[in-house]
Amino acid sequence: MLRRTKWLIVLMIGSAWLLNACSPFPEERPSISPFTFTDQHGESFGSSDLDGHMWVANFIFTECDTVCPPMTAKMADLQEALQQEQLDVELVSFSVDPQVDTPEKLKLYLEQFTEDDSNWHLLSGYDQEDIEKFAVEEFETLVNKPKDSDQVLHGVNFFVLNENGIIVEDFTFSDPDLVNKILQTLKNE
C-alpha cells in the first residue's frame, strides 16, 4: 500500500509538471528586472541591450555533463532557424556556475556549437547566490549548486520574452518540436 501511494504521488507531481511545462506566463507578469552582467567577450551586457528586442533565454554551465550540451545544441538549432526566417531575436544563456564560467571559458564553449555569436550572449560575472536568486525571482526556475559538487541543479526551460522583457511563454528543452514552437511564439508576438 505504501509503495502504491508513493507511485501515486510521483504520478501526480509528474502530471502537474507536464501540465505546466508549456504554459504561458500570466499576462500581468512584470518585465524582468534590470540587470547588467558580463558576456563571453568580457564586455558588459544587460537588459538595456535587449530593450526593443524579442529574446530567448536559458540557463546552462560549461562543466555540465548532462543536459547543457543538448540544450546548447537546441539553442544553436534555434539560432539557425531564426536566421533562415530572418527574425531579429537575441539569445541569452545565463551561466549557473559563474565562478567557473569565465568569459574565456564561455566563448570556447559557445564555439563548439556555432561560429556566429552576434546575437547569442553567454552571461556570467555574478555570484552563485545572485544567479540562484535571479533565476527564482525573475524566471521562476531552480538553480542550486550543492556544496562539494561540480554540477549545478537547474531548470531546463527555454523562456521567450517580448520586446518589453516580459516572459510570454516557456518550453521544456526535451520537447521534440521546441524550435518550431518557439518560432511560432516569436512570430505571434
TrEMBL record:
Molecular functions (GO terms): metal ion binding
Binding site for Cu cation: C64, C68, H154
Intrachain S-S bonds: C64-C68
Superkingdom of this protein's organism: Bacteria
Keyword terms, alphabetized: Copper, Disulfide bond, Metal-binding, Signal
UniProt keyword annotation of Signal present: yes
Pfam families for the chain: SCO1-SenC (PF02630)
Signal peptide: 1-21
InterPro entries the UniProt entry points to: SCO1/SenC (IPR003782), Thioredoxin-like_sf (IPR036249)
Keyword Metal-binding: yes
PANTHER family assigned: ELECTRON TRANSPORT PROTIN SCO1/SENC FAMILY MEMBER (PTHR12151), LINALOOL DEHYDRATASE_ISOMERASE DOMAIN-CONTAINING PROTEIN (PTHR12151:SF25)
Family of this protein: Belongs to the SCO1/2 family.
Descriptive protein name: SCO family protein
Species name: Paenisporosarcina quisquiliarum
